[in-house]
């Protein structure tokens, strides 16, 4: 198939099928602007980008164009928490109340740091509406969650903490290190490793960020799912305003803000569950450096990607699997069969993905500004990841 904008960048001939899939996404009008980056070890084998960063002005996507990658942020927050714990000798299996005394109330006395990192804390929704302005204050958000009673006994079940995850896991960083997640990532990870990513972006980064849009060709809409099966259950939960899924997506109230996730207020706030602005090259570089032991030790990483929970997710209603902050292969982190033993990472709402594989030594990131209706990953990302693994074979 021909057509679509010119694709820029480099691609090792052995990974030519990745380029073909990436080009095909544009030719089929599935993209506005996008980028993909792949490392094998420290070797860059795919670094491609194309299309428009802003469809209104015609501004082109560049290699370093930062794009909001939604819940891909959770992996960065987890890595920051793991690094703080490793460097300080903190035991994440100990009760949270041992370092966050205000949290140890209302049935949360036995909640551990591992529960916070693996979506087992029972706090996927807020008990009251939360404004975007409030969400810019991590201490205030942590106080709200510390006062709540969990929806289930922590450690007995898991359910995706869409936004609250960031202020729970982020408190590991804030309480034990003293810095916010955004500051810690900037000063200890992104800055030293030369990664163009920000959790709470400055004005000049926001000025050149990709503008999110929606349009024809979006894939995987839950509302159009077949009548039966797990995806249909997800669709029903998404349409039910009283479900934990809908309620977890409703606070902070982004819909009340002009521009929604394109708002400067959101992009500058540094939400530690869904606020990262990153280029594909930087997100892939983060996973490359995780694999290389530059962020946490190999032992800490191996322990962190060991699944803590696998099975029915009380929020997403599909089966999910999580280690300490990282998704493992499941219905909501769909990867090729060859990736199941070693792949970990995190998807972002609308289609983005960051992934690494401890068995294959590969790191992958894909970001785009035409958001699909997928709540986790999407078919565009799945096709690209499959092309990478087919190329490895």
UniProtKB/TrEMBL annotation:
Gene3D superfamilies linked: DD-peptidase/beta-lactamase superfamily
InterPro entries named in the record: Beta-lactam-related (IPR001466), Beta-lactam/transpept-like (IPR012338), Beta-lactamase/esterase (IPR052907)
Residue span(s) of domain Beta-lactamase-related: 23-384
SUPFAM superfamilies according to UniProt: beta-lactamase/transpeptidase-like
PANTHER family cross-referenced by the UniProt entry: BETA-LACTAMASE-RELATED, BETA-LACTAMASE-RELATED DOMAIN-CONTAINING PROTEIN
Protein name: Esterase
Organism: Marinitenerispora sediminis
Upper classification of the organism: Bacteria, Bacillati, Actinomycetota, Actinomycetes, Streptosporangiales
């Amino acid at each position: 198939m021909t057509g679509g904008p010119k694709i820029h960048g480099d691609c090792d001939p052995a990974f030519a099928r990745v380029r073909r899939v990436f080009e095909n996404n544009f030719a089929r009008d599935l993209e506005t602007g996008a980028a993909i980056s792949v490392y094998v070890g420290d070797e860059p084998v795919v670094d491609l980008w194309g299309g428009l960063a802003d469809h209104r002005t015609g501004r082109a996507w560049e290699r370093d164009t930062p794009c909001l990658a939604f819940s891909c942020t959770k992996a960065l927050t987890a890595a920051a928490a793991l690094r703080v714990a490793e460097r300080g000798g903190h035991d994440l299996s100990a009760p949270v109340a041992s370092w966050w005394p205000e949290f140890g109330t209302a049935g949360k006395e036995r909640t551990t740091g591992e529960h916070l990192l693996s979506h087992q804390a029972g706090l996927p929704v807020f008990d009251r509406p939360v404004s975007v302005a409030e969400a810019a204050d991590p201490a205030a958000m942590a106080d709200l969650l510390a006062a709540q009673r969990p929806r289930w006994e922590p450690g007995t079940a898991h359910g995706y903490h869409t936004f609250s995850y960031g202020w729970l896991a982020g408190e590991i960083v804030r309480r034990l290190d003293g810095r916010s997640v955004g500051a810690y990532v900037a000063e200890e990870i992104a800055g030293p490793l030369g990664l163009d990513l920000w959790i709470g972006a400055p004005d000049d980064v926001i000025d050149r960020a990709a503008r999110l849009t929606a349009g024809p060709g979006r894939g995987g809409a839950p509302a159009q799912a077949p009548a039966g099966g797990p995806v249909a259950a997800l669709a029903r939960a998404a349409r039910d305003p009283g479900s934990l899924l809908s309620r977890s997506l409703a606070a902070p109230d982004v819909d009340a803000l002009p521009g929604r996730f394109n708002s400067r207020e959101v992009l500058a706030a540094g939400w530690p569950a869904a606020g990262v602005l990153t280029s594909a090259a930087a997100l892939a570089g983060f996973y490359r450096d995780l694999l290389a032991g530059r962020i946490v030790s190999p032992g800490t990483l191996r322990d962190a990607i060991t699944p803590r929970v696998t099975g029915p997710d009380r929020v997403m209603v599909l089966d999910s699997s999580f280690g300490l902050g990282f998704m493992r292969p499941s219905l909501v982190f769909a990867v090729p069969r060859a990736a199941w033993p070693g792949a970990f990472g995190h998807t972002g709402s609308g289609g983005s993905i960051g992934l690494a594989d401890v068995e294959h030594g590969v790191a992958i990131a894909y970001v785009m500004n035409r958001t699909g209706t997928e709540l986790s990953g999407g078919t565009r990302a799945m096709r690209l990841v499959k092309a990478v693994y087919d190329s490895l074979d």
